[in-house]
Amino acid sequence: MTANRPGFEPVFCTIVPPHVLDKLARSGDPQLSAAARKTLVADAAQRTARRLTTVVGAPSVAPAAEPEKPQRTIHDAKRKQDLPGKKVRGEGDKPGKDATVNRAYAGLGATFELFLKAFSRNSIDGQGLPLIATVHFGEDYGNAFWNGEQMVFGDGDGEIFLDFTIPVDVIGHELAHGVTQYTANFSYFGQPGALNESISDVFGSLIKQYTLGQNAEQADWLIGAGLLAPRVTGKALRSMKEPGSAYDDDVLGKDPQPATMDGYVRTGRDNGGVHINSGIPNHAFYLAAEALGGNAWERAGQIWYDTLTAGGLEVDADFEDFAKATVAAAASRYGEGEEHQAVVKAWSQVGVASS
């Protein structure tokens, strides 16, 4: 299945950045390096499969039988890499003994609910697309990904990463890649790719806040809190409030995300730094949400959603293009009051022109 925007490109999106896995693969600890290498090999195989699926076409999926209700299916890969695996829970089935399956099911539901209740969007494609997930993927697989059709979660190696279904924002982040796929369809390189990643962080964080009943002030604004094992010196994969502060570990290294354009990283790795420079638009969203207060999904989130779905952005939009579009979306929905002013100021604070 492909996006409904022209110029669609195959995108394979993972929650753990390649630069993190690359560093782990070079670790002097054979256990850590082996797990990271297996993850990198698995990611490469899935990335190739994604390209082939785009060429030959994905199987069609029937929309949900009941409008505006989720249609979830969870599969168990049983530590293999064949997708989707064995079906272990369908929509409406009672929870089983496998906590990973139950968390995946609940996370898909939480994502569906936020988009429906906050933005009147019926599933990630807006038309009731069934939500499919696979858990227990691979051996010591240290990642989670959206492959254009479904969610996939690894169990982690227990040394660096724990079960990838633990943080609900990881589930929301990956499914939000699907929303982007069906709307703005940003290409996955450089600034458009960083916007793609940032959008997923934004909505992943909003899903966590919505699920926990937290307002902008109460939220931790961390992506992947609870995912890092106890031996890791860090609190999450990324911080929207303080990009660059999520971890500082002797094995993982230091979180490289910049908070402003002054720290923008130019690199050919990680598709042009999509997981690194996403810290800049992430921080802009945090600043806008903090300034507006209350529930972040209600005003700041609505502006970002309007921007994503308006259809006015090109697939190669850069930070300035997106910033200008958010300012226009704020004015269109709220006029030139505090919402508009908060968005303009947020982009100015991170060094991105919005006018």
For the biggest β-sheet, the strand order reads 1-5-6-4-2-3
Strand content: 5-15%
Output mean pLDDT: 92
Detail the poorly predicted runs: 1-8, 52-59
Structural class: alpha+beta
Alpha-carbon Rg, integer: 19 Å
Report the sheet with the most strands, covering strand number, pairing sense and barrel closure: 6 strands, mixed
Shape: globular
The number of helical elements comes to: 10
Alpha carbon gap, first and last residue:
36 Å
The number of strands is: 10
What share of residues is helical? 40-55%
Structure characterization notes:
With 355 residues, the protein is of the alpha+beta class. The chain is built from ten helices and ten strands. The protein has a six-stranded mixed sheet with strand order 1-5-6-4-2-3, covered by helices on one side. A two-stranded antiparallel sheet has the order 7-8. A two-stranded antiparallel ribbon has the order 9-10. Strand 9 and strand 10 form a beta hairpin. Helix 1 runs antiparallel to helix 2. It is globular and about 55 Å long. The N terminus is likely disordered.
Question: Which labels suit this protein?
Answer:
two-stranded antiparallel sheet, disordered N terminus, 6-stranded mixed beta sheet, single chain, globular, 355 residues, 10 helices, alpha+beta
